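Appendix B. Raw example, untouched.
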Amino acid sequence: MEVVPSRIFNLLYIYIDIIWLVIFIIILLFTKRYLAIIVGSVGAIIYFLVDYGIFYHALGTREVNGINTLVLLLWLSISYGFTNFTWIWLWLDRDGFALEWSILIVSGWLATALLSQNFGNNFQVISIKRGTSSYHGIMALLMFVGYTILIIYNLKSNRVDNKNNNKLNKPAKKINILWILSIGIIVQFSWEAVLLISGIRAAGLAPLIINSLIETNMGLPYIFLIHKAVTARFNENLTKINPQLNGQKLT
């Protein structure tokens, strides 16, 4: 099934979004979420390599009108790449502030979109779109592989010795796959819904539903495993963790 996500917005949207990104980064710095900033920066680079390198150059599925393609895709990758990866990372932290971070990000997206719609009539109009039929299958495969790894881990963590009817090993704590799946769906659904509500995204539920199930969600199992490995050694403020002190900071 070919899904063609498209957007029509004005140049003011980009300017306001840059201001929002600066505010968001300042808040992250103020709260010492340095790991989240690093992960968000890596996410922005990945988004740009995929969007500009693969979608635009290799596959020719990305189309941009009204502005320089390189400039637009660089901003777009930093905007959603940084914010999405940072939000996912903060959610995985389970620091008790998932609701606060979520409201901050979604309300920022919504305010940016609606302000540009209200006051951007005299600004340059920009339109972008991309086809998905040439790569959604690969994304679905990556999602399947990622979640299969987590499923196998859970199945192995509760193995039973049929002969002695005893646990082979002390059961490992199961991964909450439903929680991880929810994060992947909610993050993509949130900004797809904001684009749809604000009129930036063309009317239609197909991009909202299909993209929410696949696009961001395909990376969640891998990000979860990376998060688990990194946060076993470092706190969010980049201080090292001493395993012998049960997770206490090294000073």
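End of appendix B.
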